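Why do we care about 3D structure at all? Because function follows from shape, and shape follows, mostly, from sequence. That is the central idea of this module. The next example makes it concrete: a single protein chain, its amino acid sequence, and then its structure expressed as tokens.
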Amino acid sequence: MKNVDHKSKEVLAKVREIEIRARRLVEESLAGQYESVFKGRGMDFDRAREYVRGDEVRTIDWNVTARMGLPHVKLYTEEREMTMMIVIDLSASLDFGSSSQTKRELAAEVACVMAFSALRNNDKVGLVLFTGDVEHYIAPMSGRRHVLRLIRDILYYEPEGRGTNLVGALDFVNRVQRRRSLVLLMSDFVFSDAQEEVLSGLDSKIRTSSGRHDLVTMSINDKSEEVLPSVGMIRIEDSESGEIVSVPCGNKLLRDSYRSEALRQREDLRRFFSRQGVDFLELKTGERYELVIKQFFSNRERRVER
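And the structure:
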């Protein structure tokens, strides 16, 4: 019982630590930017009224017009409440971290920042955790306690699977969220299969999801994943497939080749999401993620104003 109580206190302390950092960042640096970037982008139907000269012909409500015998147009009000869905890949590779922070912890902190930004604007926040299957879903709600529960689950939920199925996760979100929502898809985009094959299979699903929702992708990585250490022979385990290989890291040509391939794959990811018109944020453990988020908000603001 004492061990359980001790573990619970550790969980609460970690969640509280992340909350304090996230709320400070939201209040001091990101206040207002979230609303200007994401709010008021949708319109809700309000009512129909009789057509008057000067109204846009394309707003005519033909059903009401036929029923009333006189032309009527649709009136809309700006949609003020939005739903944010945080969708996180909890495959085994997300538990890796070469610094004091794992990729999963970074994902939890970024999710906390975005969730509290949403709360400041009276938006609801939901959560989807997935591996090879969708494993955990929390319906969108508002409130501080709700957000803290989401962060706790991101940090401590124990997934059954080890792989990554992005298509299945997006399918699930499209089923449960019929109205347009802000969807934050977080993954390290590390795949057991060839990246080219995975992206090819993902192509149409990204187009469908980004057409239905405001889809933002966030790559959660560790800087050491792009560089092999110069330490001689090491054994590396693929955390998702479980395969173990011995790598002669003392070989400079091999290290250079590994880094070039890692950089090429990252560039292919950037191009893939750019072609889809989907924002792609790159975040790394041990680095200041808030600078990436602020730059993202600034870039979106400029696009909204055009």
